[in-house]
Each structure stands twice: as C-alpha cells, then as structure tokens.
Backbone:
C-alpha cells in the first residue's frame, strides 16, 4: 500500500514536503504525530491524526505517538488565541496512560513486527534540560526572524486582543522542533505528521535536523476537517464528542455519526474508516440510488463505533435507536443498560418519586399528578388514557387508576412516561 496515495484519495493530504513520497517508497520509514495530553480522553478532533498513523502502519511503516508531557506543561494548544493552561506531571501521566489505551484500538503496539507502534513522552528528554542548556544547545540554532515568519506566530502578534504572545508560547515551536530532532537521532524518525495548522512547527523540526545533522526529514499535514455547512467539525451543543464512554456514551457517539449530512458522510467515511476505495465507491453509488436508506451514514456509524467502543456497544446503540418508533420498543427498554437509557432520553423532564409509593402500588393518577406533576390534573390524565395517548415504558395504559408496581421499573429505578406521540418524562425512583 502506497501511504501517500492512500491518504490522497481519502482527502487527507494538505501539504507535503518534496521527497516525502520517495522516502516512503524507498524503505520502512518511522513517522510521528504529537498529541497533547491535556485530557484523559481523545475526542473525535484527534481522530484524523490517529487515522493517519493507522494508515501509515497498514502501509508497512512505523508509527510513533508522541505524548507532549513537556509541551503539555507549557499548556494546552487547543485555544490558539489564548495563553496555554498549565497541567501538573501527575495529571499528564494519568492522561498519557488513558490515551494509550484508546490508541491501542487503532494501532498495533504489542506485536514483535518491526513496524510495531511506539508511544513516547517528550517530558522524558526535556526534563533534564536546564534553561541555559536549552538556549545554548537548541535556541542558537534557529533565528528569531525564522520563528517570527511562521503564520501561527504572526496571527498571535497581530491579534485584536492586544495581549501579544508570551515567551513561553513563542518557544513552543522550538520545543516541538527539538522533539523531531531527538526522535531523528534516537529512533531514526524521518517524518512528522500533523494537522495543517502544525506546518510551521513541523518545518522548524526539519530545519533543526538539516542544520545540526545535515539530514533529510519530511513533513506531511492533513487538512483541518470542516462540515459541509461551514460549521465546526466535532462540536455539538454539549461540547466535544469524546472517545471515552464516561464523557460521550456509545449511543450518543453512534448518533453523532449517524446524523451527519450526506455530503459529510461521503467525506468522513474516507477519513475515519479503513474501508477500501471500492467498498466506499459502492456505498456512494448505493446512497445516490436511494438516499433515504442512508447507507453511508449507517456504515460510517457502524465502523467507527465498533472501532472506538466495541461491536456489542454498536449493537446496543442500534437497538436503543429503535426505542422511539419500534414495535418492540417495550422489550428493548427492559434490555438496555442505564447509561444508554439516560442517553436516549437526555433532556426530557425528570421527576423524583419515592420507592415506597411504587411498592405500595398507588394509582397511576396519584403518581403522575400528585407525586410527580407530569399531568396538570387527574381529569387531563384520564382523558389522555381513554384516547390511547398514555404510555408507560412504551406500553399503552387505558386505565389512569391502575396500580403501579415494581415490575414497571427500568434498571430498577426508572419509569418512562409518554403523553401523546412526542412528550416524554422520566421518573427516577429514590
């Protein structure tokens, strides 16, 4: 597999230094990509870089995931227009371990293959530098003129805020450049991968290698991913879409991909899956023939949810998606786990009720009017029930005064109430 050709047809090449493709065709090449460990989970914005490493390894080359422990101590680069937030070493080490567990789902770290993936942390070689040592051995190699010419620096210095740029922030590209030099010397690393916004920092590294070692090193960046409507990729109303189920449930993760537009689905399935060109072209043709079936979104959601979580989590998410309209929704409700249930009904009104009332078998009308004001009055509730519009756990209830029971409890603590077609409430039993 030709790595550059693979990335090109997938729309994952933005800039590439001359000679990069020739180097990759000549021999197994070690390449690295940097990840700042500023959280203990990656989010889907990181996935483009992770997929670059995955394709690199599939093409027979050796990937290195560099965790920016030292640069992370300088701070978080995600807020490009603001000074970085500092994190302590204990937090960064915890985040590193969590990130490696996630990367292991995409990369082979454990085999004895010559191109097995490695993880390194730049804190391990930066921590022994003194300030004087760094500016003596590294700082003298790159001119301020060279650093000032970088777009990322120029944008900060001409920013409207007028806050300028601290020396800490300015030195970041020198630290990142030294990472490349260190990996060139110790791991024979010849290529750095990254997003298009990293081009300036990456080429600082290639310049350091050229000036100190007389060596050739290369850079390849991918475009920043956008949505077809111009919106920011990976952001939802509730924030980032995380790979860790603690922050984004598998159901919500699956729903994110299932609900992307047709134009985005065609782009994303190339970037975020390992499906072959032929498989994707067949899916595109299928989508064009019958867009209502949404085969691109369904396959995209399946591939990436299975890769990030598991096949079982994918199946649960698909099943949970049927709750709102499936004829066997009642059975599904009793099967799904608590986290998925809460994800499906996130945002619906919730009411706390006493377990003793459920165990005592009080009438539904008393529970849903007096104990939890789902209905304004018993008369309104009785009328809704008579018209077939009252459902408990997706099962119609014609008798507003039927006794409640513990058999109604989902995951032993929830009751789902539905008024009409779209109005849901969730009772939480204390």
Residues:
């Amino acid at each position: 597999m030709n790595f550059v050709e693979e990335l090109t047809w997938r729309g994952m090449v933005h800039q590439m230094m001359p000679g990069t493709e020739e180097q990759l065709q000549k021999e197994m090449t070690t390449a690295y990509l940097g990840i700042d460990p500023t959280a203990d989970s990656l989010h889907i914005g990181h996935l483009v870089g992770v997929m670059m490493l995955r394709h690199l390894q599939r093409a027979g080359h050796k990937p290195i995931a560099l965790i920016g422990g030292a640069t992370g101590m300088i701070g978080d680069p995600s807020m490009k227009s603001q000074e970085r937030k500092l994190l302590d070493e204990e937090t960064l080490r915890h985040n590193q371990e969590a990130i490696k567990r996630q990367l292991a789902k995409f990369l082979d770290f454990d085999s004895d293959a010559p191109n097995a993936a490695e993880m390194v942390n730049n804190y391990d070689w930066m921590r022994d530098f003194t300030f004087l040592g760094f500016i003596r051995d590294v700082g003298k190699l790159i001119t301020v003129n060279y650093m000032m010419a970088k777009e990322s620096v120029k944008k900060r210095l001409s920013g409207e805020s007028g806050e300028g740029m601290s020396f800490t922030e300015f030195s970041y590209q020198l630290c990142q450049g030294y990472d490349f030099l260190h990996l060139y010397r110790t791991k024979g690393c010849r290529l750095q991968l990254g997003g298009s916004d990293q081009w300036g920092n990456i080429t600082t590294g290639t310049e350091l290698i050229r000036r100190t070692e007389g060596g050739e090193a290369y850079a390849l960046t991918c475009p920043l991913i956008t949505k077809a409507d111009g919106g920011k990729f990976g952001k939802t109303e509730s924030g980032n879409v995380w790979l860790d189920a603690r922050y984004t449930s598998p159901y919500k993760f699956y729903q994110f991909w299932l609900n992307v537009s047709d134009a985005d689905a065609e782009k994303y399935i190339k970037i975020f899956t390992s499906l072959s060109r032929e498989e994707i072209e067949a899916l595109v043709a299928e989508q064009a023939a019958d867009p209502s079936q949404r085969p691109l979104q369904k396959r995209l959601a399946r591939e990436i949810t299975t890769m990030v979580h598991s096949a079982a989590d994918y199946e649960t998410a698909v099943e949970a998606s049927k709750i709102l309209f499936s004829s066997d929704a009642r059975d599904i409700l009793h099967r799904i786990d608590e986290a998925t249930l809460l994800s499906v009904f996130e945002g619906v009104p919730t009411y706390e009720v006493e377990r003793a009332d459920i165990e005592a078998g009080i009438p539904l009308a008393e529970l849903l009017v007096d104990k939890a004001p789902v209905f304004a009055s018993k008369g309104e509730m009785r009328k809704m029930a008579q018209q077939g519009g009252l459902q408990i756990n997706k099962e119609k209830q014609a008798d507003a005064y039927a006794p409640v029971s513990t058999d109604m409890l989902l995951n032993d603590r929830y009751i789902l109430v539905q008024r009409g077609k779209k109005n849901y409430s969730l009772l939480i039993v204390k």
